[in-house]
Amino acid sequence: MPRKRHSAEEIVTKLRQAEVLTAQGRSVAEAIRSIGVTEVAFYRWRREYGGLKGDQVKLLKELEAENARLRRAVSDLTLDKMILAEAVRGN
After folding, report:
1. Same domain (yes/no): 33, 64
2. Is the domain of 16 the same as that of 42?
3. Quick one: 57 exposed, middle or buried, by C-beta within 10 A (0-12, 13-18, 19+)?
């Protein structure tokens, strides 16, 4: 069975559907089954996206991408600094 990757908006929608179903009196396991995901995926999504709205998810993803870009830049600059320090000690 091929794996399906859900978009962040789909994840938030499914989490809200599960919240509504549990509020209506269904058990968590029944709610998870009715939205069509595994328990592991549901709890992982809830940990990452719980309480967020659609626009907040987009902002979160943008900030994570920017953070990764900045971390790469810092690591590149640190490496350059170490190389220059080694060259100075060598001369």
Report:
1. no
2. yes
3. middle
- Based on the domain organization, do 46 and 12 belong to the same domain? yes
Are 34 and 44 a contacting pair, CB within 8 Å?
no
How many domains does the structure of the chain reveal?
2
Interhelix angle for 28-35 vs 39-49, to 10°?
90
- Amino acid occupying residue 3: R
As a whole number of angstroms, the distance between CA 3 and CA 1 comes to 7
Pull the structure tokens for residue 7. Answer: 């978009």
Entry pTM: 0.62
pLDDT in tens, 46-69: 998 887 777 788 888 899 999 999
Query: Which residues neighbour 41 within 8 Å (Cβ) at sequence distance 6 or greater?
Result: none
Domain that holds residue 36: 1-52
